[in-house]
Amino acid sequence: MILRTLADLRAQVAAWKRAGESVGVVPTMGALHQGHLSLVSAAKQACDRVIVTIFVNPRQFNSPEDLANYPRTEIEDARKLAPLAVDVVYVPDGAQMYPEGFATTVSVGGLTDVLCGANRPGHFDGVATVVTKLFTQTQADRAYFGEKDYQQVQVVTRLARDLDLPIAVVACPTIREEDGLAMSSRNLLLSDRARVYAPELHRAMKELAQGLIAGKDPTLLHMQAKARLDRAGFTKVEYLDLRACDDLSLLETPDRPARLLAAAWLAGVRLIDNIAVG
Ligand code: PAF
Question: Which of 128, 150, 233, 234 has the lowest tally of Cβ within 10 angstroms?
């Protein structure tokens, strides 16, 4: 069932809650791929009812061009969701989410100063604000996010904890194409040629991670990874950082649970990825 208004959503959720049913939510911006569908499967396994939300949130885009180019594939999305029999697909419009006079921003400090937060000013305020709204609108017990957006998962987990929202944030593993490219809605923007070279990001990261685990010189490893990306046609590496899993502080070597995170531009498309190290 597709619902477009908050009133309809609330009525449906209230009926489920009266019946004592648990609710899971999978927040998305559409352009659904196997990664999103894996979140839906995880939600279906743990919750009586599942809501998928589709809303291309203007507040998390720091460039109007990026917002305009973001893939919108509503009919395809509905076709992909059909076999999964989700209970509700919630597709609010801009006026529903941000009615006239809307003046509140949810902002998570610290964690958002680095990585995508540093490179996309305002991005995480937009994410935190819309996610808080989606959590309260759906009154879900559990929310499912992909680890591909590692920093986003940290931010959302932190805001749920800080604001005492009665929801469990569940992180699910990144789903990859056969050649290693992390699935992302933005992959649809890659030209055929760029698509061939895009998996080099994951390969360079794996090589760097293996070198770090083997105790090789981090500076040299970073230089080699950047040279590899350069050869593959990546025009800009925004970050290629080893960071602590818990607080995202920068590490030189993986001497505590660590994650290698990257954002890089290929033929005008910004790709991100992250892998566990050790
Ligand atoms: O990951 C996304 O698609 C978006 O950032 C989210 C969580 C749906 C919020 O708009």
Answer: 233
Instruction: Please say whether the beta carbons of 92 and 130 come within 8 A.
Output: no
By residue range, what is the domain housing residue 37?
A: 2-172
Flag whether 177 is in a domain. no
Query: What is the C-alpha to C-alpha distance for residues 262 and 199, in angstroms, rounded to an integer?
Result: 13
Domain count along the chain = 2
Specify whether 139 is located in the same domain as 220: no
Pocket test for ligand 1, best of 62, 152, 184 (most atoms within 8 A of CB): 152
Closest residue CA from atom 5 of ligand 1 = 127
Tell me the percentage of the chain whose pLDDT exceeds 70. Answer: 100
Terminal alpha carbon distance of the chain: 43
- Band of residue 278 on the pLDDT scale cut at 50, 70, 90: confident
Residue 28 in contact with ligand 1 by CB distance below 6 A: yes
Name the pTM for this structure. 0.97
